[in-house]
Amino acid sequence: MEELKMVLGDGSGIEIVGFALPLSVTVNCESMAEMAEIWERLHMGTSMSKIEILRDSVVCGTYFDVKIDGVQVIKNGDDTLTAHFYMRDSGSSQTEMENEYAQAARILLGEEE
Predict the structure, then answer these.
(1) pTM greater than the 0.85 cutoff
(2) Which own/partner pairs from 17-23 qualify as long-range (CB within 8 Å, at least 24 positions apart)?
(3) Which pLDDT score is estimated for 57?
(4) Tell me: the pLDDT tens digits for 70-81?
(5) Which residues on neighbouring strands pair with residue 4, listed in sequence order?
(6) Using CA atoms in the order 8, 9, 10, 14, what is the torsion angle rounded to 10 degrees?
(7) How far apart are CA 29 and CA 39, in angstroms?
(8) DSSP assignment, residue 48?
(9) Rounded mean pLDDT of 69-94?
(10) Dihedral sign, CA of 21, 6, 54, 103?
(11) Sheet holding 67-75, edge to edge
């Protein structure tokens, strides 16, 4: 099973269970207090100046000046919570997939082999 983690600008990390583009992460929480603690961490000083998404300890996305657009919290049958954090960045992000698409476009245009 792959390991996903979001590393914040302050160097701390948050274990995540899902990640989707343009930028949303899914976190499992044991309680509303744990979800609120994560929410607070995402709103502290420099924590969102740069975030990296790691898949099995490999950076697969880097985002800058990230802002929270919202959160959706779902209560699970076992009284745990699943939180979906929706975010956006300054537009200067780099993801592995975007880099691959850009390279494919250059190949199609004959600019690269």
Answers:
(1) no
(2) 17/82, 19/53, 19/55, 19/60, 19/61, 21/61, 21/95, 21/97, 22/88, 23/61, 23/63, 23/66, 23/86, 23/87, 23/88, 23/89, 23/93
(3) 92
(4) 889 999 999 999
(5) 16, 55
(6) 0
(7) 11
(8) G
(9) 85
(10) positive
(11) 18-20, 24-29, 81-88, 67-75
Tokens of residue 99, six digits? 């880099």
CA 14, 19, 57, 44 torsion-angle sign: negative
Length of the chain: 113
Structure-model confidence comparison of residues 104 and 35, the more confident one: 35
Rounded CA-CA distance 71/83 in Å is 7
As given in the structure block, the two tokens for residue 97 are 């997939």
Q: Which residues contact 70 (CB under 8 A, 6 or more apart)?
A: 85, 86
Q: Are 50 and 63 in contact (CB under 8 A)?
A: yes
User: What span, in angstroms and rounded, lies between the C-alpha atoms of 80 and 91?
Assistant: 34
> Average pLDDT in the 34-63 region?
89
